Amino acid sequence: MRHRLAAVSAATLLCLAGATGLAEASPSSPTSLYAPSAMVFTITQGDNAATGTVLRAAVLSCTYTAEGTHPAPRAACDALNATGGEFNRLLAAPDQNRVCPRHYNPVTVTADGVWQGSRVAWKHTFSNACMMSATLGNNALYAF
After folding, report:
1. CB count, 10 Å around CB of 85?
2. How far apart are CA 7 and CA 3, in angstroms?
3. Residue 131: how many CB atoms within 10 A of its CB?
4. Over the stretch 122-131, which tens digit does the pLDDT of each residue have?
5. What pLDDT does residue 92 have?
6. pLDDT at 34
7. If DSSP codes are grouped into helix, strand and coil, which group holds residue 45?
8. Under DSSP, is residue 93 helix (H, G, I), strand (E, B) or coil?
9. How far apart are CA 140 and CA 138, in angstroms?
10. Neighbours of 96 (CB within 10 A)
């Protein structure tokens, strides 16, 4: 019985020492300081992202580094972080000097994935591509 107790105690100490070593090593890893952000952005022709024709799509991962299929991942990650998780902020400052036709040819933009550790599913439909461009303007997030 005494040998079993000693073996269990030794195994417990080894596990705790190993866990402590892992806990100490974890903060020095650069990626451990950032909550994961990995998103897929789409621009779809139509008012329903599920049934429309996907015109363009980009994948973006924002952790310690910015990467993905987005042509400007660092700028897109900065724009994503500027929303503070409120994607409707992308719609806040449309270009009032831009004149767009009033025909209805809907375009839907989506953002799906994980932003700073939280699940995100956002979409917005514009009446046409000109209105999308006037609203999103120079925002790097949908510049793909």
Report:
1. 13
2. 6
3. 19
4. 999 999 999 9
5. 78
6. 61
7. strand
8. coil
9. 6
10. 7
Q: Are 112 and 66 in contact (CB under 8 A)?
A: no
CA distance 54 to 134: 20
Q: Is 134 helix (H, G, I), strand (E, B) or coil?
A: helix
Task: Specify the pTM.
Answer: 0.72
Residue type, 142: Y
User: Pick from 111, 98, 99: which is nearest to 70 by CA?
Assistant: 111
| Residue 41 C-alpha from the chain's centroid | 8
- DSSP class per residue in 1-58: -HHHHHHHHHHHHHHHHHHHHHHHHGGGSGGGGS---EEEEEEEESS-TTTSEEEEEE
CA gap 17, 66 in Å, rounded: 34
In this prediction, residue 33 carries a pLDDT of 61
Q: What is the pLDDT of residues 2-33, one digit of tens each?
A: 443 333 333 333 333 333 333 333 333 444 56
| 22 vs 27: CA distance, rounded Å | 9
